[in-house]
Amino acid sequence: MKIRSPWWLVALSFLAVSAVASAGKMPAIGDRLVDLRLPTPESAETREYLGLPPGEAFSATAIAGKILVIEIFSMYCPHCQREAPAVNRLYQAIQDSEPLRDRVKMIGIGVGNSTFEINHFRKHYSILFPLFPDEDFTVHKAIGEVRTPFFIVAALGPNDNGRILWTGSGSMGSLETFMARLNDLARDSAP
């Protein structure tokens, strides 16, 4: 007996394969961070935290510091919503750490989210670090359409401008483990 596949199943398979083939490469340790062009924050306080002059757009690698922690999130993602308190604790722990405060910066990129949506997420979850919209999925596509939440830790500075040091999908894990990782990475990237 010959089994025939429905034509729509074959067509769907081709679409799925072509969608994966057209996506960017998922970030891996040692890769360079793709050129993430983000809108320059209007807030002078946020620009100061990131070490940015006023302007229209900037590359994530232009952020002042030695290490950049990026959370890829969506306000509609239940896992991102659940992870928000932990990510807030991470940001606060970085700010409370004398060795890390000026060396490690943190941002969030809301995939498929408008400025209105990320501002709602920021307010609802009391997010203190800068969030940026990726309304048209440009960043999301460039980094391989990763699932949310997704974390990227990248080195900044002239010698390893955007070199990816760590990535993780889902929960960031325990605060103690993440802080130990950041301390080790900051020590390794010391001038």
Automatic annotation (TrEMBL):
PROSITE patterns: THIOREDOXIN_1 (PS00194), THIOREDOXIN_2 (PS51352). Residues 27-187 form the Thioredoxin domain. Keywords: Redox-active center, Signal. The lineage of its organism: Bacteria, Pseudomonadati, Thermodesulfobacteriota, Desulfobacteria, Desulfobacterales. It holds the Pfam family AhpC-TSA. GO terms for molecular function: antioxidant activity; oxidoreductase activity. This is Alkyl hydroperoxide reductase. Residues 1-23 form the signal peptide.
